[in-house]
Amino acid sequence: MSTQFVRTTGVPATSARADGPVFMRSVMKSGNATKDKIERAALHLFAEVGVDGTSMRDIAREAGISLGAIYNHYESKDELAWAIFSEAWGSIADEMRAVARPCQGIRAKLRAIIAFVFSMFESDPDLVRFLFFQRHRNLPRVRLGVSNPYFVFRGLIHNAMIHDEVPERDPDVAASMVMGAIIQTIDTVLLGRIDRDPLDLIEDVTDGTLRLLSHRLAE
Amino acid sequence: MSTQFVRTTGVPATSARADGPVFMRSVMKSGNATKDKIERAALHLFAEVGVDGTSMRDIAREAGISLGAIYNHYESKDELAWAIFSEAWGSIADEMRAVARPCQGIRAKLRAIIAFVFSMFESDPDLVRFLFFQRHRNLPRVRLGVSNPYFVFRGLIHNAMIHDEVPERDPDVAASMVMGAIIQTIDTVLLGRIDRDPLDLIEDVTDGTLRLLSHRLAE
DNA sequence: AATGAACGAACGATCGTTCATTCTATGACA
DNA sequence: TGTCATAGAATGAACGATCGTTCGTTCATT
Predict the structure, then answer these.
(1) Which residues lie across from A20 on neighbouring strands?
(2) Rounded CA gap, A155 and B176, in Å?
(3) Which of B93, B95, B92 has the alpha carbon at shortest distance from B14?
(4) Could you list the pLDDT tens digit for every one of the 219 residues in chain A?
């Protein structure tokens, strides 16, 4: 159940349809069973031991198909890794935007996005690990202007500044800090150093990022 | 000059001695010129294309020595990568603690640490990139209880909570968010999306993390 | 029978590592 | 001062393993 953490205060939970969330439908692409098996196996191994640490033979074995069959669907290992990354990277950004849209105000939007990322981490940890913890390899290759989680945060925060919901600051620094705070929290959970009810975590992280964006407290 | 950003409001800037900061002396180890050349070349390549993307021949070429010479100083490629990581990871934690110690209060301590990390990023970007952006590979191998940047943040924040400088919260969540905010800011600078005076950045990031730790603002 | 997916042996390249050999710096001795 | 023995460092060819990729063949479906 991918919507278990998504509570956006009385607003339609997510834009996910009956056939699953957007990022699922896009990563596990249309109909082709073999291609899906390849992508799922590759994603799992890439998340576990990295792209370089995974051989095409490993992928074939994990997918339960032959080595040569992979090349019926992908030109190369590099294209396979890039296809999975870029597709998911863009889809996640779209989905983040979608879950935030119906919410009113920066707090509700931010909470919806954070809840979505956490729910994705629960339902598909391989995808989150591959995307966020190996992103430095692929990020320079992402075309500017294309859908991108970072720009979702930046746009959200910039918009809140324009509407005087939060004070004016460098939107890039603010977006970086907010995104980093969220990702690192997931990272620490992954390392086993945080063992908390994910619902509480969502509230804590939402509150923390909002304070980070807020006016300074007069002590 | 590694101390150019370290301004801890009238307190001795860092514990670095005349022979350079601790993290430098430890990564570029004692006296042996060849070993230093190997480590410096390896660090540069590891930061650039990752450990798996770097061959021992690459390292030898970049260091200007022969392939076999590396094995006079390291048992294997894995040991080389691990030696560089674990040594630097522990040293950075020690240095963070050292620059924070003479400072009074969470704000000054946090600023000193952030200034130190930013100065390190300026003086040795390879080291920062290798440590922070490829840490997921090595982190599970770090012995618990050993010196660790994460625990420095956690200890600092936990201590501030005990002394009522900041409100009581889950210290692991707080430490994760603070550390993530700092690292991601550096990451965004690396991607060329932030082009600011580093001194301003230090202030902004310090303020942001402190708000994140502070009391909620009554709107 | 025809078509396209699946198969897996084989290929050349490159990997980490080894090791027999060569180089070089040092110090004892004439 | 000049000579040479010696130890440790440096060298790079070679080895076996494994890599990504190819392609002739088989299989399954219509």
Answers:
(1) A17
(2) 24
(3) B95
(4) 233 333 333 333 333 333 334 444 444 555 688 999 999 999 999 999 999 999 999 999 999 999 999 999 999 999 999 999 999 999 999 999 999 999 999 999 999 999 999 999 999 999 999 998 888 889 989 988 789 999 999 999 999 999 999 999 999 999 999 999 999 999 999 999 999 998 899 999 999 999 999 987 644
Distance (Å) from the C-alpha of residue B172 to the closest C-alpha of chain A?
A: 6
Are A177 and B179 in contact (CB < 8 Å)? no
- For residue B164, which phi and psi values (nearest 5 degrees)? 60, 25
Residue at B142: amino acid letter: V
- Amino acid of residue A112: A
Contact predicate A217/B211, CB 8 Å: yes
Q: Which residues of A touch B172 (CB under 8 A)?
A: 188, 193-194
Q: Are A29 and A88 in contact (CB under 8 A)?
A: no
Residue B172 and residue A188: Cβ atoms within 8 Å? Answer: yes
Whether B66 and B105 have beta carbons less than 8 Å apart is answered as no
- Whole-angstrom CA distances from A93 to A43, A87, A90 are 18, 10, 5
Other CB atoms within 10 Å distance of the CB of residue A207: 17
